[in-house]
Amino acid sequence: MRLIRNKYFQYLLVGVVFLLPVIIRGVPTATVTLAASMVYTAIAALGINVLLGYSGQISLGHAAFMGLSAYLSAYLTKQMDLPFLLSVLIAVLVPMLIGLILGAIAVRLEGFYLAIATLGFGEILRQLFIEMDWFTGGFSGASATYPKVFGHTMSKNEMYIFMVCLLVVLMMLVYNFVHSSSGRAMIAMKSSKTAAMAMGVNVFKYKLTSFAISSVFAGLAGVCYVHFFRHVDPSVWTAALSLNLIAIVVIGGLGTVGGAVVGAVVMHGLPELMKGLPVVGEIPGVPLLIVGILMIVMLIFYPRGLIYIPRDIKNFFQKRASRAKKGEA
Amino acid sequence: MVEFFQQVVGGIETGSMYALAAMGLVLIFQTAKIINFSQGTLGMFMAYVCTGLILDLGLPMWIAVPVSMILAMVLGALIDRFLMNGKRNITNLNREMITLAIIMIFQGLAPMLFGANETPFSKFINTSALDVGGVKILPNSILIIGITCVIMAVLFFVLEKTTLGVAVRATASNPQVARLQGIPVKKVTIGAWAVATALGCLAAVMVAPLKNVTVSMMESIHLNSFIASVLGGFSTFYGPVVASFIIGIANNLLGYYVSTKWSLPLLYALILLFIVLRPNGLFGKKIVKKV
Fold first, then answer.
1. Residue B119 pairs with which residues in a beta bridge?
2. Contact residues, chain A, for B109 at CB < 8 Å
3. Closest CA–CA distance from residue A104 to any residue of chain B (Å)
4. What are phi and psi of B131, to 5 degrees?
5. ipTM more than 0.90?
6. Nearest-angstrom CA–CA distance, A251 and B29
7. Which residues pair with B137 in a beta bridge?
8. Interchain CB distance below 8 Å, A285 and B104
9. What is the pTM of this model?
10. Residue A191 belongs to what domain range?
11. Strand intervals (E) in chain A
């Protein structure tokens, strides 16, 4: 029982569940592709959770960071012939630097003003993706290959396994981070900036840190995207994706490590599930409609996030058990 | 110089559509303290309803547009009553996420009910352009600008000079104190949602002849009205309207004198710089927070 409560063990379990489509034979490749899109979204959503859930900053520009990393990694590995790991490092450092700039802006701005500043940033980046066609391939997009590490070219499944391992490691890192003194300082900053400053928390430093971390996560998600799907075009990295990431975090559970993953699985899984249904999936628009309705139901009845469902079920049974005991006495 | 004025007139025309949408955003933000991300999508849906009224029921345009605006008001009121205030323990962030879900619902409903094809939408007035000292102005543009000015004048008159306006402004400055003083805050937010949705519907009907009625027709207007609201300052009613016209005109001028490709990114960069230098917008006041 103690082992199950251990967070690291839970995260490993999540990884094992994600690996099932590769382990079990005869699973169609479409399932692996769907699972991969869940994994890369979960990585980006983890970063957003650090930003929004733990330190209370909002960003509508992270989709553009994902795109930037995807393009950078595609360009560096294909056109410049750099080794995969080096190109990943560069493709993640660049968004981190931009994230630091945004963090410096965030020191002056709050709430909606910050949302707009990041949104404007994202839209400018997206316009660059469209116009700089020597770098991004314009509207038709750029292509990439499966990564080659130490002389070994990964297959599709190996790339997927790499992504799942990355996700598990990142979950553990986030868990450690938010339980460190820096994490506690961020949570203090979220509930009240002024009070945190009075307690001696360096708000400037932690705003920069949270933006840097979330940009790195967005960058890693972008790298995973481009090397799994091997194609990237500017239509993906819109503000709608940034909003979607926030919705994923809120639905999964704000300020929890598992919430980002649960949200990503639900928000990617539901539409596919709807499209697969016999009658419902055939009429255009109906899957989207049902997902919207389910999302409202989840938000109204589980405002704290889906991650709390197991805990509530457990509490429910414990209450019943204790009531039954009282009845016996 | 003629070209300059030509661009300015075009800017005022697009600016008035931004202004209507921005007014809707600010009304909801001020009274309910949330950003309504679904404003553009609701407008798009109502534009579909309006085309349906014209094409299927054969209503003339001057009846169809007011009817669809009234339907929009009902829709907005229903959304506020049942989705925004349905349960008490949800946070404002959750409410904003619900507006995202509303986007999905109506983007699913529109192709389901009206088909996925683009539908053309005729202009209000189809006569040829007037020539004012070399500047060509379509009567339709004059109508759009005129309607916007009249609506803005009526809204500001109501907000500033009537008891109803006092109730709205009191709710905007502090909902709890307003409730203590006997102002029906819930009715005020329902009214705000109704008026905002109708404004979004009107903006969509105005754009419809330029872009055809499609699912994505309102995206750029929604985005720009959102940016205008921040540029003007969310804490005032007039700021976003002024900023909408500034964005419309500046976008056209940058497009004509600098580059059509880069006008919007350049504009966003300028706005970004401005927001960083003046974090509360053009007219916004700094709200002092207490611990």
1. B213
2. 285, 289
3. 10
4. -110, 110
5. no
6. 22
7. B130
8. no
9. 0.84
10. 2-328
11. 142-143, 148-149, 152-153, 231-232
